[in-house]
Design goal:
With about 110 residues, the chain is mainly alpha-helical. It has one domain. Helix content is about 95%, strand content about 0%. It is elongated, with a radius of gyration of 24 Å. About 0% of the residues are buried.
């Protein structure tokens, strides 16, 4: 489940980067035209692309920090409470096993 979510997130990030690249190409194509309406559109689009890139970079940085922080927190918890971690893991394994076993009986 976690791998699928990570893969979906990576695919979404790649798609957003692709949208940004296409928008930049559009800005470049619009830069050749001198019509006043297109100049204004190009300026607005340039601002939107720059803002989108900045936000994407912020989101990627926050995700990286969250991943690092969560990993350290889990590691610290397991080191402080090894038997609790073993018990929780065993309980989750039993629940998952029971769920998978009941899924195959239907």
């Amino acid at each position: 489940m976690m791998e699928r979510t990570a893969q979906q997130t990576a695919a979404l990030a790649d798609e957003l980067r692709n949208v940004m690249r296409q928008a930049e190409k559009l800005v470049l194509a619009l830069s050749e035209d001198r019509d006043e309406a297109l100049v204004e559109l190009r300026e607005r689009l340039s601002v939107a692309v720059a803002e989108g890139k900045r936000r994407m970079a912020d989101i990627e940085e926050q995700a990286r920090l969250f991943k690092d922080t969560a990993g350290r927190a889990v590691d610290q918890f397991v080191q402080d409470n090894p038997w609790t971690a073993v018990g929780v893991s065993a309980a989750l394994g039993l629940i998952l096993g029971a769920w998978l076993a009941s899924d195959h009986r239907e």
